Amino acid sequence: MIDRQPHDHSATGVAAADVEEPSAVSLQPPGPPRLLGWARENLFGSVPNTVMTLLALALLWEVVPPFLSWALVHAQWGGDGAACRQAEGACWALVGERHRLMLFGVYPYDQHWRPLLATAILVTLLATSAVRAFWRPWLLWAWLAGFAVIALLMWGGVLGMPYVETDMWGGLPLTLALAVLGIALAFPLSIVLALGRRSELPVIRAFSVAYIELVRGIPLVSVLFMASVMFPLFLPEGVTIDKLLRALVGMVLFTAAYLAEAVRGGLQAVPRGQEEAADALGLSYWRKMRLIVLPQALRLVIPPIVNQFISCFKDTSLVTIVGLYDLLAATKAALADPEWRPFFVEGYVAAALVYWSFCFFMSRYSQWLEHQLATGQKR
Amino acid sequence: MTLFKTLAVAAVLTSAASLPAHAGATFDAVKAKGFVQCGVNLGLYGFSAPDDKGNWAGLDVDACRAVAAAMFGDAGKVKFTPLSAQQRLPALQSGEIDMLARNTTWTLSRDTANGLNFAVTTYYDGQGFMVPRKLGVKSAKELDGATICVLPGTTSEQNLTDWFRANKMSYKPVVIEKNEELTSAFFSGRCDSFSSDTSQLAAVRANEAANPDDYLILPELISREPLTPVVRHGDDQWLDLVRWSIYAMIAAEEKGITSKNVDQMLTSPDPEVKRILGATPGNGQSLGVDEKWAYNIVKQVGNYGESFERNVGMGSKLKVERGLNALYSHGGLMYPPPFK
């Protein structure tokens, strides 16, 4: 077990903290003195420590009060652009007035409840999947059913909902759909590619290597550019493939190449003996991979995989170059109005908060997942 | 950006060489599918941008709607494809869109080498200068030695260099990448002047200046930017329809036909008004559309003046003066050929 060391280390670290705290409480009286003692030891323990602490405090004093004054105290929470220009602080009225454009792009205005509901379903599914008690076969069916409902809501065309084509999808639902579908489709593809790269069959290996190296050698913008601009030139006139689909395929192909290398790292870290033992049991190649190798390999590479997921989520903002209104592009469109153009900082801060909350969720989830799956290594 | 350009040029060359040239193909295809696919800007207020409710609005958007009204009698039969600057020409060449109305400057190389046809200029723009009134400058010729705020890497910067060199003057550029920072640099007094397309200068003055009357846009234009809708080579009937749909808006303004009075105008004794609105038939048949084509445009989209005021003029937040975009009879360049 190669990575036993770091896990053991962190486990004992946690245990040690658990043990130390009660003893510290018993030695010192509760309340402020304990905090003072801690501060004296950690913040003012030595001359360099004291200097660093004072510098940090000075920096906070410089940054935090003006920021709070801008963001909260003097902020303008309502009204129009003229009112905002008079205000000294942030103009959150922009978000209040234009949030529907920022969140849903050019989706028909009176139908906004549909993308809203679709987003809610998607977020619920994501949250449900983060609870281990729900890791049952029905969860997979729930996801499939959820996707069907989301597709129904977004496209419409039945049950009295007017048909809305993908050209008009935008904002947060588009960003989430691209990210979730992109990740969900790229992940299996990346496993196939990683296994292919380690295959003993030369044709498969050569294909996998060529694919991964080719795709990793070009930036995502040019993949999207090829998919949206060059690709239609080779189609017969009048034949067009949905723009959203083209962007999605481009993102999947791109993300898969990067993920494949992360997965391959995991495969290489699984000791050779595991495979040999599986061979000795007479397992077929696929059963060996599914039951013995991949579970160990994937657990080892959760951090790089989640890393790739997060970057895939943020990469969705690049689809604006193919003319799709993701969250960031919709925010920019909301800022195109000259009345609100001076308040671009507020618009971008709002968009950044949305991106951050999803990325933070993914990152916390991966830490929790790592902890959950490491049970076999804690002894 | 260089990669984009290389790819775009490659795309342009491959398509220009392989385009089919049978007449009527686009016209018939548009008629068969029942809507006009129109390429527009991702978000340029006044020309094409989604409004609060996500509906497309702008001068370019109105050009698309006018063509739909002429073709189908319904200005709503348009689908908009928002396009980036790199994407716009290849999207037209590949047939992804039927027409492009995306604040595109008509130039010789685009008209010829790219295999495109420009219809009718809908907005005459040009690069100019804005100065604070208290500077006391009345002409761009007095700007020798001035510091000028300009966006880097655009034609604006190149035009500025050329113009100052041609006039044997010098200037100190203040180049700032972000548009918003550039304007705040100007208003905080870091530059004597701000140079950009005059439509942009007007928008910035109307919305970002503490007091718009403190700033003056100088009369000189140092570049010509005729913003014009575009179609592909190879279908003259389609080009005719796009061209005359826009002329119909301009002619309607000249004849005083507006979206409000168009029904009364149907009984006007003026023979040209009769021909425009189809009361005297013939024009529709020549274009291959309904005789009511121009009536539908004016009724549903409005005449050119209405569209201008609503999107970029005094009825909008841009507050741009008509200037070059006034009718020829008012000293502008808008001049519709006769509807005979």
From TrEMBL, chain A:
Residues 1-27 are annotated as: Disordered. GO terms for biological process: amino acid transport. It comes from the Bacteria. The keyword Transport applies. InterPro entries: AA_ABC_transptr_permease_3TM, ArtM/GltK/GlnP/TcyL/YhdX-like, MetI-like, MetI-like_sf. GO terms for molecular function: transmembrane transporter activity. Keywords: Cell membrane, Membrane, Transmembrane, Transmembrane helix, Transport. It is a multi-pass membrane protein. One of its GO terms (cellular component) is ATP-binding cassette (ABC) transporter complex. Pfam families: BPD_transp_1. Residues 172-366 form the ABC transmembrane type-1 domain. It is found in: Cell inner membrane; Cell membrane. CDD domains: TM_PBP2 (cd06261). Residues 1-10 have a biased composition (Basic and acidic residues). The keyword Membrane applies. The chain crosses the membrane at residues 43-61, 112-131, 138-164, 176-196, 217-235, 247-270. Belongs to the binding-protein-dependent transport system permease family. HisMQ subfamily. This is Amino acid ABC transporter permease. It comes from Magnetospirillum aberrantis SpK. The lineage of its organism: Bacteria, Pseudomonadati, Pseudomonadota, Alphaproteobacteria, Rhodospirillales.
TrEMBL record, chain B:
SMART domains: PBPb. Residues 1-23 form the signal peptide. Residues 35-265 form the Solute-binding protein family 3/N-terminal domain. Gene3D superfamilies: Periplasmic binding protein-like II. InterPro entries: Bact_solute-bind_prot3, Solute-binding_3/MltF_N. Keywords: Signal, Transport. It comes from the Bacteria. SUPFAM superfamilies: Periplasmic binding protein-like II. One of its GO terms (biological process) is amino acid transport. PANTHER family: AMINO ACID ABC TRANSPORTER PERMEASE, AMINO-ACID ABC TRANSPORTER-BINDING PROTEIN YHDW-RELATED. Belongs to the bacterial solute-binding protein 3 family. This is Amino acid ABC transporter substrate-binding protein. It comes from Magnetospirillum aberrantis SpK. The lineage of its organism: Bacteria, Pseudomonadati, Pseudomonadota, Alphaproteobacteria, Rhodospirillales.
